[in-house]
Write the C-alpha cells for this entry.
Amino acid sequence: MDRKKPKAPPSSYLIFCNYERENVKNSLLEKSDSKETIRITDIQKELSSRWKSLSQEERKIFEDQAQLLKLKYNNIFFDLLFCTFTK
C-alpha cells in the first residue's frame, strides 16, 4: 500500500480532554504555589473527574463530534482501501 493508513479518530473523552486541558492546567496553577509545577498525572486526574461529572447533554456534544470524526475516518479509510484493491 503506497499510502499510509489514516490516524484513528479520537474518542469523545479525548476530544473533551483536548478541549479542557488548558483550563484545567490554569485552574491547578491558580490553586498551587506559583513556584510549584503541575504534574501531568494531576491534570489527567482532574480531567477524568470533570468528564465523570458531565451531564448526558454535555457529553453528547463530545460524543457527536467523535461520531462525525469516526464517519470521516471510515470514509477516508474505505477510499484508500478501495483504491488499493482496484489498481
